[in-house]
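Researcher: Here's a chain I'd like modeled. Treat it as a single chain, no partners, no ligands.
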Amino acid sequence: MLKWQENFLAGESVKDPEKIKKKLNSGKPVLGIYLLTLAENPVNLMDIIPAAMLIQKSFYGICPKIIGMAKGKEEALEMVRSLIDEMYRETGTFATAEYIENR
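Model: Modeled as a single isolated chain. Structure tokens:
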């Protein structure tokens, strides 16, 4: 099972995020959806992953915690930019995991 942030973010273009979440959890492909995850690499703040990557069972098992989903890469990039801007304005830091947990 994938690891999801309790109140994960969903882009404005995402129709029925809970339905998409259920499909992804059951291993079904969902095209056009991009996932925002906490970065495993400490140099990065977040990663953007095409949901289609989850078809690969090896990746499905190691997917980092999902904090959001977007329809299309452009919306995903805008969500990351907005989230980082909000985080820095509110905390003055780039402690992404802590900010997401306490949001």
